[in-house]
Design goal:
By secondary structure, the chain is mainly α. Helices cover about 70% and strands about 0% of the residues. A hairpin with a 7-residue loop joins strand 1 and strand 2. The chain starts with a helix and ends in a 5-residue tail after the last helix.
Length: about 300
Amino acid sequence: MSALGELQRLRGAAPATPRKRDNKAAYLFLLPWFAGLLLFTAGPIAASLALGFTDYNLIQAPTFNGLDNFIRMLGDERLHHALGVTFFYVVVSVPLQLACALALALLLDRGLRGLAFYRSVFYLPSLLGSSVAIAVLWRQIFGAEGLVNQLLATFGIAGKGWISDPSTALGTLVVLNVWTFGAPMVIFLAGLRQIPAMYYEAAATDGAGKGVQFWRITLPLLSPIIFFNLVLQIIHAFQSFTQAFVVSGGSGGPSDSTLFYTLYLYQRGFGNFDMGYASALAWLLLVIIAGFTAINFWAAKFWVTYDD
């Protein structure tokens, strides 16, 4: 046998390399995660898609009904109203939230004393904003006997039930979402710290003021961070549920003024036991979120600047 053939034979009989052994160990440790992914994520997702084409009430076995659930959406006026409420909530609350987050990040970026403390305090509402406790607190603040009316009374202004009034109920939830600006603020602050100071120094040497520096330097270089926060907060706003459920008592508020899409989905699935229709609604929400995300990525090429 030639020397080359002997070398190939020895290579074929060589024991497993340390890298291959490490890969086997990694897959072994990842096995519980993969099992959880299949059982608790991928499995339910596939099941909800299948149930979207059935008539299912959680008691009897599901029966296939084709596209009936999706056709029903065209004539579901309450669904159309929920979509309108949700779109208004997303379009109004997300820009206001990001504007507040950016403004606070610019303020904290100026080198205040106790920056870590202020950053933690401002971030705290983001941790608690989706909790039931904060939603209950918000209901007490804007109730007929709440803190807002007590504050107005000190100035001789008669308050009202902000949550029970259809004209202001949704606005209170918008304010609640804007108040939870901590997470995007921290991300904005990290982005501001990555902008080289030499750009501002050069602009100041050329006579550019703070306003020009903000529009010509800060916003363009921060645009990838703005885009990142915009996509995440739009997805989060479409998925909002706890606030509307607790504040409205699960009913959708007066005249369905706080009937979020997710709340209506919950009512159909667990209130009316129309789980087939609720599954179809869930997939419609997925399509809506995917559509908004795709539009954002398409529009990003016109305003997002990446500093190479």
